[in-house]
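User: Fold this; tokens only.

Assistant: Input:
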Amino acid sequence: MVDHLDIRSSLFDPGREPCQDLLDVGTFVGHDDAGDDRQDVVIVLTDLGGRQIELPVQGCQQGLETAALLLERAASGQAELESQGADVHRPSVARQVEVDKTRRACQDGVMRAMRRIGPWIGVLVLILVVAFAAYLVTTTVRQATQPVAALSAGLGTQIAEILHPTPTILPDPVTIVREVRSLARLETIQYTVEKVITAETGQGPFGFLFGDRLLLVAHGVVIAGVDLGRVEPADVWFDEAGRVYLSLPAPEIFVATLDNNQSYVYDRDTGLLTSGDVNLEAAARRAAEEEIRQAALRDGILDQARLNAESVLYRLLRSLGFGDVIFAPAGAGPALPPTSTPTALPTPAPAG
């Protein structure tokens, strides 16, 4: 709201009451050829904050008087300034100019920021477009090649079945039991041995025609212990102190065999004019069993079997109530006179 009007003009007409308090001498008056007096007027507007805004107005005497009246009404809050026959600017123009300047400054800042980040946005958009295109291409290729891959896998399975057919095993329903024997073996140790065996036949100058060669990976088990069925009454005795003497038979290997689930032929090469020796793999397996047996013997399996057997029997006899157990060498019996009947062992005391 404008609270003060100060109009300076180069022409002052005291006969015109409406302009008497508003016009002030100070501007130039011009006359045109038509005799119409025109003059320049500077309107000074002072707002409630004390800021002054100067508005230049150009027009004839009558137009200036009308403008002055309108300004006076606008100052009192009755009407707005309207231009009637003169080039008069409203007081809000200056404020609008400031608003426009502020708006343009904000727009310029936004444009500068957009120019700075614009290339990065473009790069990001390009990366997203390339990634989406790659995804579409990959998906399309996968969908297009999926039937071909499935057909190839099925064909490969059929070819493998033709080249490597699954063997058909038909056991005979008749089973013959040759022998049944009772055993009293005390197995005390087991070795697991793996050995590679090479078996060949027909090698020589014409080996590529008639030769046969295979490579067997043998996985075997060797079990050793003491056969308690060979213990005689004379091998067990005791003394006056109640000690028990026990002479064990020599330890032996009970089992030396291959594990068929883990043994396999790694490679076999036959000549051009032969189908191979049918007994070659069996001979290789027999040789593998002997090799793993000898490997266990060289490693001291029998000595360890004796020690384990003595440890097991010692704990067993002590648990039965005997005070002490002594293991004598094989064949070392008591120095007693011969009797017609063997001396019986004393009844052990009940365990405490």
